[in-house]
Design a protein that fits this description.
By secondary structure, the protein is α+β, with helices and mostly antiparallel strands. It is 19% helix and 34% strand. Strands 1-6-8-7-3-4-2-5 form an eight-stranded antiparallel sheet. InterPro entries: AraC_E-bd, GyrI-like, Reg_factor_effector_dom_sf, SmbC-like.
Length: 153
């Protein structure tokens, strides 16, 4: 089932990943290390994957994405090796994926193959996102929750 939500503008600290989206885990590991070192990553942070290119538009080796976490507006990233990114928010079609990250592809296939075409929603060129709703270090893979968001008009 698709939910339509309005996402707020969110300032984030990020690490860029170029290449196959399924390998973004390395960027998440680096993001966590840098966020902990800078004492910015805490229980109040929301964790995101931002996908700034589309696989249908370019070779896999050129795909761009970011691993990130939310930060307060007044937080400076100077000296942290983390890059600032402002997620502009807006209207998103979302679905909830339950299960291991390596099964996200099945949810995307259902979303793009069935749910979005049936919904008649019009996609925009804005970035898509994944919000990781629980901690993979303390949660069984079968219980992981990931909100997938695709920008729509």
């Amino acid at each position: 089932m698709i939910d339509i939500i309005t996402m707020p503008k969110i300032k984030c600290a990020t690490v860029e990943h170029i290449g196959d989206f399924s390998l973004i885990g390395e960027a998440f590991d680096k993001m966590k290390k840098l966020g902990d070192k800078a004492k910015l990553l805490n229980m109040n942070c929301k964790i995101f994957g931002f996908y700034t290119s589309r696989p249908c538009d370019m070779p896999v080796s050129q795909l761009r994405s970011m691993a990130g976490f939310s930060i307060e507006e007044n937080v400076s990233l100077e000296g942290s090796d983390l890059e600032p990114y402002v997620f502009e928010g807006g209207k998103y079609a979302t679905v909830l994926h339950k299960g291991p990250y390596d099964t996200l592809r099945k949810t995307y296939e259902k979303l793009f193959g069935e749910l979005l075409p049936a919904s008649k929603l019009k996609l925009t060129s804005k970035h898509s996102f994944e919000e990781y709703l629980n901690n993979p270090h303390v949660t069984e893979p079968s219980q992981l929750l990931t909100k997938i968001g695709i920008s729509v008009e």
